[in-house]
Amino acid sequence: MSQTATAPAASTAAAQIPVTVLTGYLGSGKTTLLNRILSNTQGKRYAVIVNEFGEIGIDNDLIVESDEEIYEMNNGCVCCTVRGDLVRVVEGLMRRPGRFDAIVVETTGLADPAPVAQTFFMDEDVRAKTRLDAVVALVDAKHLPLRLKDSKEAEDQIAFADLVVLNKLDLVTPEELAKVEATIRAINPTARIHKTERSGVALESVLDQGAFDLKRVLEDDPHFLDADDHHHDHDHECGPDCNHDHHGHDHGHHHHHGEVSDIHDISVRSVSLRAGEMDPKKFFPWIEKITQIDGPNILRLKGIIAFKGDPDRYVLQGVHMIMEGDHQRPWKDGEAHESRLVFIGRELDEEKLRRTFDACRA
Amino acid sequence: MPTVAPLDLDGHCVAAGFLQDIPFFALADGTIHRLDNGHRQAQAHDGLLCAAFDGATRLLTGGEDGKVVATRAGGESETLGETPRKWIGAVASGPQGAIAWAAGRNATVRLADGTLKEFAHPRTAEGLAFAPKGLRLAVARYNGATLHFPNAQGKPTELEWGGAHTGVTFSPDGNFLVTAMQENALHGWKLADGKHMRMTGYPAKVKSLSWSAKGRWLASSGAPAAILWPFQGKDGPMGKAPLELGTRGDTMVTAVSCHPSDDIVAIGYADGMVLAARFTDSREVLLRRAGKGAVTTMNWDSGGQRLAFGGEEGQCGVIDISA
């Protein structure tokens, strides 16, 4: 019975081909993970778009090599960029849709993930036929500290990720691991972290994530932003998975990574906001203004908003200036009508965000 | 009454048109179909990405297989170029038997005698067009267009305009160059003085362009109506409003093709409908009812009696307006 309400949405979604974006530095294990995806297809066929042929071969029938090409849009917005090569390749692939069930985009180690993600929202043709499923960042546990020192891209890739595959655990000590993990959390408190060796992460936790699907986004994250309970400083926040991923560690769920204090090579931080019910007449103009003005500095935003008098949860997510929001589902009985919003970005003015967010309360 | 002879194929039709009055249909799956005393087909590519009719003599196609193939009216074909592992993103035919293709950042011109001239660009060569006279190739690229003179030494002419330019066409008199952009707009240059022409206001990307007889109008898709920009004056459409023909409230124009001699444009829509509209009084005639899938390509035969069309779901056919 409830099926009837969801059927139209489900059929539209089925017509769109899911796209998984793999980011990460050369040597982080991207190609190994890609080959695992391709060899465990369970009948699924993939089209793979690569920007460079790495040292490991990719074993797939349908591989397209494309030169990374960033296009700025002529709308006066510096952060509104798309990947022209993806627009072309996806358009070409989608003219023969019978050949594959999903697309995997493997970016170069130096790729900026923002234009990749934005391509799937800004280009109307690409958007009509595909949907971005998730951005997956491969992180080499051993070499991440070094990468963060010498590149902005390594940080951006983590900041943009829905899933971080923390790879090569066999090469680090527990102390190094704890530091790397805390660093990832400091950059991106909302991403799920999967710790693994040799890219051995369970494929079902990488594929079909619906990370950009407003109906699903945040729904599986019961602890979304819970870490903010403690008001500890920004670079020590925990994410949705922190109670899953800390097995073997002696701290509980709401913990400080007090032992880690040397996170200084990162410029991305997050601001987590929470409040009670909001006034939509104040909230929407505010979020539009914030994303217009601070859009270039906002890498990702995610939130669940409780509007006064609205029986439904409102979810929103954004990439730079692009923002999407929709009603997700009714608030459950006994569920606190709470608004939670997290910004991940550079040079975010936490005090301003906090103050202006609070001013939107109902 | 117009009559429709449908040809239902399986797959996205990239180009439909005529070679020596024989209807040809090039599909994304790499097959080329022709209606020559019955339906015949040949496999030209493993994946066909682009196509251009070289007058009424050859159909040029480029594919995912890196090949550039010319197919003649009788169905015989030859491979004119090959770039292994690269997609051929655009093909164009020019005067004096010259052709060109684009693969990644390179555009290659092949002269009638088989000589190849390669032009590298800092960004992807997205669209190609030859000028109607002389030997001049325009390449649409990021932030403008580049004009090459394959038979002459010296630097190419760079035409700059911010944004990504994905397609390009010369006016039939050679005085104007018009590009289609990644954003919903056309951009034009008056070649004599480099003056810019901005043609904006489209709700969607412009994917189909067609010059009317004698180049008086440029018809375009990308709106609920066919948008025709006036090019009769020496400054092109600047300061003038375009004609809007075949306006429909519930769908978009996806393909246009101007009649070879009369002021009539065939208009294909996202729902498969095809109309013909007259410039002078906007009168419309229904040529094909709506069906499944958008019309992607249309071309008239040389006499202007028959229109070949193709769609994204493989719905192709020939409309005869002479009856």
Automatic annotation (TrEMBL), chain A:
SMART domains: CobW_C. Keywords: Chaperone, Hydrolase, Nucleotide-binding. It holds the Pfam family cobW. It catalyses: GTP + H2O = GDP + phosphate + H(+). Gene3D superfamilies: CobW-like, C-terminal domain, P-loop containing nucleotide triphosphate hydrolases. Residues 268-361 form the CobW C-terminal domain. Zinc chaperone that directly transfers zinc cofactor to target proteins, thereby activating them. Zinc is transferred from the CXCC motif in the GTPase domain to the zinc binding site in target proteins in a process requiring GTP hydrolysis. Belongs to the SIMIBI class G3E GTPase family. ZNG1 subfamily. This is GTP-binding protein. It comes from Mesorhizobium liriopis.
From TrEMBL, chain B:
The keyword Ribosomal protein does not apply. InterPro entries: Apc4-like_WD40_dom, Quinoprotein_ADH-like_sf, WD40/YVTN_repeat-like_dom_sf, WD40_rpt, WD_LIS1/nudF_dynein_reg. It comes from the Bacteria. Residues 260-322 form the Anaphase-promoting complex subunit 4-like WD40 domain. Pfam families: ANAPC4_WD40, WD40. Keywords: Repeat, WD repeat. This is WD40 repeat domain-containing protein. The lineage of its organism: Bacteria, Pseudomonadati, Pseudomonadota, Alphaproteobacteria, Hyphomicrobiales.
